[in-house]
Design brief:
Number of helices: 12
Structural class: alpha/beta
Largest sheet: 10 strands, mixed
Radius of gyration: 20 Å
Order of helices and strands: EHEHHEHEHEEEHEHEHEHEEHHH
Bound molecules: adenosine-5'-triphosphate, magnesium ion
Length: 354
């Protein structure tokens, strides 16, 4: 029987509450699909600062290095905002993890569940057209990591992309498209940026290896507009770090609930860090009302992208869809609901067992 070792880093705020539900779901699907998951929990973020003085303790890093994937909750919160920027939980834990494991690829699916299309600011139009987008964002290069500087009356940031950086992220996008609707929209600003001209050249070259996938190029400004006008137009979006940062948040806003959206950050050898797109939600932490779906769907992404357990991943996604259709949702989805975090987790498990 296949055995996968995962590092469980629940973190702060609602992280620990929603993580409990994701782990229960993983235990059920691993039984059903004939693999085992050995999970070990470790400290990260603000909780780790309080206990050890470091946001990413050595023991946590060692655990991650000895694991096949990281299931991550969320880090940070009001308690730690007075720390210097470099010691803030997110900067001092998540960024070093991305760097250590070369997690160059960020995947953010954004979809509309028909039963809850009214959560979208594009309702009612979006109810008939739908949206099902996978945003593929380059995560370790570009303007965020280029040379920067500041004099008294000026400042600069530089953007640099190499052929190999563009090529590896492009391959992820095209591979993903073959498992979806065979369409890639590559985002750039090739009319003004040198990096975008190179981006286009490399994407065109990679596209030749995927003749079944339709490729289109779109300027970032136009893409931001088309996402609002016609979100159903898109399948896979291929973006650099900056454009992907912006568009993935736009897609989340169109989808309407942070509590439903998972994300994956991958390297070139199937190792990944999986986390909800939302944060620590300090306003509702500890109340048992956080939506566990984003964390549960993050676990599904882990099964798909790190372990290749596609059938188990789909089973979780279907169980989530069925739970939503039954109206078993937390208050962020339906303000009149009396269901809490544990109820939603139990409903997903019941749907898996049905
Ligand atoms: P952080 O700095 O960790 O991102 P934040 O204050 O920005 O914290 P988010 O976690 O990004 O808060 O959440 C933004 C809003 O969405 C909050 O009102 C929060 O309650 C809500 N939210 C986010 N995730 C969930 C969830 N899983 N369930 C319910 N509500 C959520
Ligand atoms: Mg936030």
């Amino acid at each position: 029987m296949k055995n996968y070792k995962i590092a469980v880093l629940a973190g702060d705020g609602i992280g620990p509450e929603v993580m409990v539900q994701a782990l229960k779901v993983l235990a059920v699907v691993s039984d059903q699909f004939g693999f085992s998951i050995q999970h070990t929990e470790a400290l990260i973020g603000g909780a780790a600062i309080d206990a050890t003085g470091a946001a990413l303790p050595e023991a946590t890093l060692t655990l991650c290095k000895n694991s096949d994937a990281i299931l991550f909750g969320s880090v940070g919160g009001p308690k730690w905002t007075s720390l210097p920027p470099a010691q803030q939980p997110e900067r001092a834990s998540l960024l070093p993890l991305r760097k250590t494991f070369d997690l160059f690829c960020n995947l953010r699916p954004g979809q509309i569940y028909p039963a809850f299309a009214e959560l979208s600011p594009l309702h009612p139009k979006i109810s008939s057209q739908g949206m099902d987008i996978l945003c593929v964002r380059e995560l370790t290069g570009g303007i965020y990591f280029g040379e920067k500087g500041r004099t008294e009356d000026a400042a600069f940031d530089t953007q640099k992309y190499s052929v190999s950086e563009i090529e590896r992220i492009s391959r992820v996008a095209f591979e993903a498209a073959t498992k979806r609707r065979n369409k890639v929209t590559s985002i750039d600003k090739a009319n003004v940026l040198a990096t975008s001209v190179l981006w286009r050249e490399v994407v065109e070259r990679v596209a030749k290896d995927y003749p079944q996938v339709q490729l289109e190029h779109m300027y970032i400004d136009n893409a931001a507009m088309q996402l609002i006008r016609a979100p159903q137009h898109f399948d896979v979006l291929l973006c650099d770090n900056l454009f992907g940062d912006i568009l993935s948040d736009e897609i989340a806003a169109i989808a309407g609930s942070l509590g439903l959206l998972p994300s994956a950050s991958l390297n070139g050898s199937n190792f990944g860090l999986y986390e909800p797109a939302g944060g620590t939600a300090p306003d509702i932490a500890g109340k048992g009302i956080a939506n566990p779906i984003a964390q549960i769907l993050s676990a599904a992404l882990m099964l798909r992208y790190s372990f290749g357990e596609e059938a188990a991943a789909r089973a979780i996604e279907q169980a989530v869809a069925s739970t939503l259709e039954q109206g078993i949702v937390t208050r962020d989805i339906n303000s009149a609901s009396n269901y809490g975090t544990a109820d939603v987790g139990a409903a997903v498990i019941a749907a898996l067992n049905a």
